[in-house]
Structure formats: structure tokens, C-alpha cells
Amino acid sequence: MMLWSDSTHLANFGTAKLWPVYMALGNLSKYVRSLPNSGALHHVAYIPSLPDSFQDDLKTWHSQWNKASHRKDVTTHCRRELMHAVWRFLLDDDFVNAYKYGIVIRCLDGIERRVYPRIFTYSADYPEKVLLATIRDKGLCLCPRCLIPQSKLHLMGQALDLRRRATDVREFFWEKVRHAREWIYQFGKGIKSKYVEDHLKETSSVPTVNAFSERLGQSFNPPQVFPLSRMLVPDFMHEFELGVWKTLFTHIIRVLWAKTPDGSSVLKLNDWFRQVLPFGTDTIRRFTTDTSEMKKLAAHDFEDILQCSIPVFDGLLPDQGENWQLLRLLYRTAEFHAFAKLRCHTDDTIEHLMEVTTAFGKLVRQFKDNICAGCETVELPSEAARRVRRAHTQTAGVATSNQEIPATQGRRPKELNLSTYKFHSLGDYPAYIRMFGPSDGFSTQVGELAHRLVKRLYGLTNKRKVAMQIGKRVERLERKSTAAPANAESREGSTSTTTDTPDDRSFQFSMSESQNHPIDIFNLIKAQRGNPAYKNFLPKLQDHLLGRKLGRAFDGDNHNDFSDEDRNTLHIYGEKIYQVGTCTFYFTTYDNRRDFDVVNPTSRPDVMARSQEDNRREVPFWHARVIGIYHAKVSTTHSDVRPKDRGVERMSFLFVRWLGAEPGYRFGFDKARLPKVGFVPYTDNADNFAFGFLDPSQVLRGCHLIPDFQSERTSELLPYPCAVARQIDSNVNDDWETFYVNIFVDRDMVMRYYGGGIGHLNQGETQGGDEAGDEQAGPSEDEDEGDLEEEPMLSLPAPAVAPTPGSGDEDSDDESDDDPIMEGDDDDDGRYASD
Length: 835
Ligand SMILES: [Zn+2]
Description:
InterPro entries: Plavaka. Helix 7 (174-185) runs antiparallel to helix 8 (194-200) and helix 11 (236-259) packs across helix 32. With 835 residues, the protein is an alpha+beta fold. Strand 6 (103-106) and strand 7 form a beta hairpin. The chain is 43% helix and 13% strand. The protein binds zinc ion.
């Protein structure tokens, strides 16, 4: 059993709240569990809040009710008691009986099995974990999982710290709590009185009996220990994306302000963020507003910022050494983020995550000691404004509008605080992933996503006794879905279409067969005379198509051995090629799912292919900017082409502008540097390959290039005005000299560079040669590869194979990964993000 709980606002206005507890069965696939409409998430309870009459009741008999501190202590205590009373109610005798002796369940396949329910994980944000672990909010030991004191939290990742997590596991202190409760309930001492604190303060315990420890451990004969601390898994979204990374990003901007008080580097930062191209359907969205202000950002936005941060921050710190240190830190941060969020792990990736965690912890501490200590960091203007506004609201009792607030003078000093639970928590990921699987399985996002249903149902209620009404509707929905086998079948049917068949795997791309934009080749060449992009357009195209017809291995079309005679054997029907707007590339992800990238020359133009050069170990991929997507009907009479391949065939090809690896530049995980590429310089030679053609089946997937803003713009790479080569920004006549390849754009991309992704393992076969295959690749094998390349094209007109339903699902998968954060976040942001 995996549990989630999280209180949520039911409507954008008003105070209506619901605090649901959800449960899913860990035996189910996480891909089913995390789908909001799969019905895998059950509503176990709605935790009530203390009634309004509670305070009045207490006032009548509590002698010191007027003391604010007493009032607060008692209310907090009662809230805790309420939470555990609810859980005591849920873990009733029947449940405990099943827990001890098992329960016989008749499963769907008709077989009766004895099932022992076990509580696996409980995902909740920190305030809720505090309640569940029965610890105090701001105590000496902040962590619900271990007893490492607050003064040692910043040492996250050190060998000693990692060892202490295993030895100083938090347990429930039965004796201490029993004594404390005696003082309170028998001798009438205050909850925070010295008698009680003597027992509890040291371990940050509270005088509440933990329902889990009691019902599933202490009440047994003989008593057992319930693994309470293991159940409370870390929470990546709140702790890292909205926690540590948000804090770190904010502080880096504070450092920028401190280093350049005129704000010029912050302006540059915002400007550069705006120039980052979007990627995927919503993997990276366009950064529109001033990113440094962080207005209304959800976890997904912070993820985007992190993934694009390295090129944008490069060069903003004036000191070279500090700049390098910052880039290194950002690299490790993005690396930690990627590996902690992988949806499929191997021993190797977990091992790597551990190393990255240690390296990240060290770099953050160095950043604090070396860079932050050297400058006086103060609040951001927006932070100061928020603080002033809050103070106004509190004193005036009403919210004041922006205009009434004095200009933000007097920004207070702010330091980077690493002694937080969130920072400490990062050290727990490798161990928890080993125990419970990849972090998306127990992510709090699953719970946040489920809130959509209760919010929708809230709209159907009459707003009175809301929990009761919502609960009844949920029950009705669940009954409906189990009572209708037809429904279940159709659902099964739809999932079976998403499971991959071998056919799907070889399906690499699809593009429209539209002939709405025919281009006469000779007219094109005539019209574009003098345009460097179209120089030798026809011979290059002929070489490319003929090479494919001959089944040659793809080598970037560097074969200059075709004679004009050879070329003349190739016929392009009607001398026409047809332009289409987009091409969709399908690929198998590292976690063995299918996904796709849509490439569009005007908005998402960059693609990557496996490198065909010998230095594949250093530069594993080739990159190209697609500037045209075409198809044409082609046949050949060349004698070397096998007769069955000579007939008329629709061939698709991409017209690209090649990028080459930056010479002499080293990159990689060990160096903490992103790869750099730049456009191949154009020269007037016949064999210049700045522009060329690419077989779409060679494309692995789209890629995300971010300008290296430190490199200047230059017109030297292509010293002519050429709109077609610069479709992204057609007003300019120059290019960025180099680009960073964003390997952190998504987890699949990271794993392509890291290697060992399970879904990537057989990539070599379909793409024309992996390491081993290539070394032995003889001429006969080349022919086979040619076959494989051509095949998908023959099946081009098959929309049935085009995994539109499947791809839709992949998409929603991704969404369950990222999108749900948006909704739940409105409240989350406000509540916890500010520490
Ligand atoms: Zn801990």
C-alpha cells in the first residue's frame, strides 16, 4: 500500500478545503498508478479540521486560555491528536488482524490468495510529515527520518553524514512520550512545561502517541517496531524543485545583484532567458517574463530554469574562477535533478546519483563559503516588496495595493541557509530509490493530480458538508467503474494499443504526404542563384538519394565518387520536390517507452543523429538545424542498385545546416561541461558541407541548442544574407558563433549522453550500427542496414502504425510527470516555498 495525503483548496476563492488521504496498491505498474483516470488511487479518508466550536469549548474550562502561547500549544497538540485519531480509526482491529494473519482475497483471475497488507510509502509534504512522524516543526532534529541535529544538516553528502543516516534512524520514543503524557494528563502540566520538555525536547518529539507505531507494532504480542521513518519518503517536488533549487537560484540572483549593483547582469540574465528556444510540446516553455523576478512560477517552471541555466549564467560573474565554480555547481545541480528524477534506474545510475549527491553537496558549501561570503547579499527587490506588503497587511489588517507601498529601499541582508531539512533530505534519495524504486513512483505529484477529481466534484456539491458529498460521489464513481466490465474491457483495449509491438519500434518518423507545396527544382535553383544555401543543390540531392538507393551506410554524404553519369540515372518525378511543415520523429526512451519529437524549421529546428566518425567516444552525436522538410518520388536505373529497389518510391529527406563540434573543447560528466557545437563555416568550395541532406531515419530525436551567449554573434560562418538558413530569426544576417547542447533538457537526453539507458541499448541496430556492430560492419552488413532504413518509408502511408493513440498516451505520461504540479502549486508555492 502506498499512501498520499495533502490538504487542498477546493476553489480559487473562498476557504473551502479538503484533506484527502489516497491509497494505491504498490503491486500495480506505476504507469497505471500515476494516470489520473486509471482508478488506481482510492480515497481512504478526508481528514477533518478542528471544529469552530472547539475554541469556545476550551475557553470555558481552560484557566489560562487567554495566554496566546497556551492557546497555540493546545491547538497544535489537538491537531496532532486529531490526525492520529483518524489513523487509529483507519487502522482498526480488522486491518490489524489482516496485517498480522493475512486476509484471503479472491483475485480477478478467480484464484484465492492470502494477502498481507503492508504500508510501503507515505508521500506528503514536510508539514504533513511532521504531523505523521509526531515530531515538532522547528525543533533540534528537523528530519522525520533520522536524528541528525540541525547544526549538522548542511553537511549533506559527506561520508559521515551518509553513515549517520543509517545509524541514527529516528524511532518512536515510547518511554519518553509515556512520561510526558503522564505529566500532562495526570498532573495537569502544560504541554510546553519544563516537565514535559525534559523528556521530549532533545529528540524533537511531541506528547502524542503515534497511531502507526501503536497499532502496527506496539500493540502486538510481543511488541514490534513499525518502520515509521522509512515510510515517510522524501518529496522531490517540494524539497528540490520548489525547495533547494528555488532557494539556490534566488541566491545566485542575489549574488549577481551584489556583484553588479546597477542590475546590468540581472537584465542580461532575463534577456538571455528570453532567447532560449522552447523545446518539445511543453518540455521547455518559452521564458517570457523576467525570469529573475520569479513571478507565479510552478515547479515545472523552476525545472525549465534549471535545465537551461548553464548557458544563461555563463559569464555573468566577472571573476573567471568564480564563473567556472558557478557553472560547475549548476551542472551538478542539473545532473542531480536528472538522476534523482529518472523513471528507470540501474545499479549504475544509482551509484552515479550517490556520487553526484556528494559532489553537489560539496559544491554548494563551496559556493557559500567562497563566492557568497565575499559579497553582501541582500533581498531581491521583489522579496523586499513582498515583505513590506506583508507587514502592511498585518498592521493595517487589510491588503494594500502595490502603489501604496514605499519604494523598496532598505533591502535586508540575506544569506544562503543550508541547515534546512530540504537540503538534508537530498542525501536520502539513493537509498530510497533502492528501496522503493524510481522517485516518480512515490512522488507527491500523484496526490496533487488526484486533487483534480475532488475539485471537479466540489463544483457539483451545494457547498455544505462538502466532504460527505464528495465522498459519496467518489464512491458512486468507483462502483460504476467496477460494475461495468464493458468499461474495463475497453480500457484494457486502449492500453493494449499503447503497449509497443516490434513494428512500432522500427517506426522512426512520420511526415505529411501533402503535395500542396510543390517546388520545381530547376525554378528553385534559378531563383536562388547566388544563395549559398542552394549552391550545388541538385548534385548534392542526387548524391544523397542515390547513396540511399545504393544502400550505402550513412556517412554525411561525403562521397564524392559519383560521376555525372551516375547522377543521371536518378529520376525525380516531375522534377518536383514537395515541402511539408513538420516531421515527427519517434524514438524509444531510456525507460523503454515510446516518445516523439516534432521538428519544425521555424520553431523547433534542431535534430541529432548518431555520429559516423571515428571519435564517437568523444563526440557521440551529430547535430543539424533542419531548414526544409521534403519528399519526392524517386527511381533509378543505376546498375549497382538491386532491381527491387529501382522502382518509383517516395523518399523523404531533410535539408539541413550542419553543426560541428567545437574544436579543442572538452566536455563530459567528469568535466561538468556541456557539449558545444557551432555551424559549419561556409566556403565557396564544391565539397563544402555547411548545407546538406539528411535521411530522416538517421535522426535519433530532436535536440535543444542554447546559444553560448558569451560567444559573440558573427557573420563569418555564413557571410551572406540568407533567410532560409536563419528562419528562426529571419531579420538577422549573422549567427551565434557557438551553441551549448542542452543534455539536461529531459531525462532521455541525459541518458543518451550518459549511456546505458535500457531503451537505448538496441538503438544501434535500427539506426545503423552500434559500437560492436560497427566494428565488424562489412559491406554485406551495409546492405542490410540499407534495407532497414528504407523499410519505414515504404510503410509511410500507414497512419494505423503511426502511434497516434500511443503517442497521445506517452504524452499524458509525460504530463503526469510534470504538468500536475501546475494546479496544486498555487497553494503550495505560497505555503512553503519561501524558506
Ligand atoms: Zn534525515
